[in-house]
Fold this protein.
Amino acid sequence: MAALHAADEATIIRELDAMGVECIEPASEREHATAALMEAFAAFVLEEQPRQSLAILERNHDGSVGELQGGGEHAIYRVEITDDDESVVSRLLRAHGHGLTVERIRGHMLRRGVDRLENFMLVLAFGPTSGQIRHIDAMVPNRQLCCYMSRDCPSTVVYAPDGPAVDSGAALVALWEEGGLDVPAALRRLLVEEGARKLEGQFKFWRTIDDALRCFGKLYQPVARRLALTCAPGTLLSAGGNDVHAGPPTSSPRMFAFAVGVPEDAGDAPFTDGDGEVQYNAVLFHLDLCCVLFGRSDAESKVFLLRRLVKMVSEHPDAESYSRQLGDARADLAGWLAKLIGALPTVDHVLREAAASESLFCTETKKSRRQKRREKRRS
């Protein structure tokens, strides 16, 4: 492994370890042999036979191929890994024909307290990509596993947060006030006094605002450091907790296997449907917080919340990505967000429109990516 920026590799590994993120390199003879097979497979797909491989992906005969955000000029493909001999991944492995199997990939990733793999997929891009918007996948008590296959593979970027934890409504108010903002009294009361109140209706899955912030509150914190490595084939990144992370920008083809590692004693937790797939970036989480709060907020509080959104959107003005993640059911909200991005930096009229609307910030349910895929297949 090697560091991707100024800090040395050992320092980055120590910082990642302190955050509960392990970088596990091949150790045994079998692990080294598996890593060599992974490297050869990635080279075959991405460099030696990219046209043949891309044709297999684009035929997508079993509906297992999709795209992830962050691709840019070159798409980032995600391909479900199953034991079906006729699946897209099985066809790619068979075309390579040098002994790497689904079972061998799974065995390489099943270690250190992981009982089974969910949301098991191959992630690959045939050229440079722009990188993802930083986000959190709800993981506790599960682990996020990335097994890198291509040579000199940029790892997932993990962001170390700065300052006190934002793990409750009161902590969020404190963050804003310490930053010199005058939080409206009505909003302050909602977040401080009612943060632990159980939510009903379509945001019942949040449980409470405090529960949601315990999981996703790091998205509000400033970034202290961006931690990333260049990994050799067979290296496994195992991340626990709900860390802010993103797929890196890349300058060359890239391939890795991804899975949610479920421990044997995994219990119930907020924001999981069995595979820990509810995902938020800062913009989409704050949009949903607005949906939770707007029905009980005065005009001053609404405008304050919307102005916080402007700063977030300014950092990542990617209307297409937000629209894709919001989905057809929230097309009105996605359209308003695109209007906001298009109006930057003069946005007062767009904010007034949203604050006056009685329907724009309605309480829509946040669905997991697995639920969305199931609905797409059914349709």
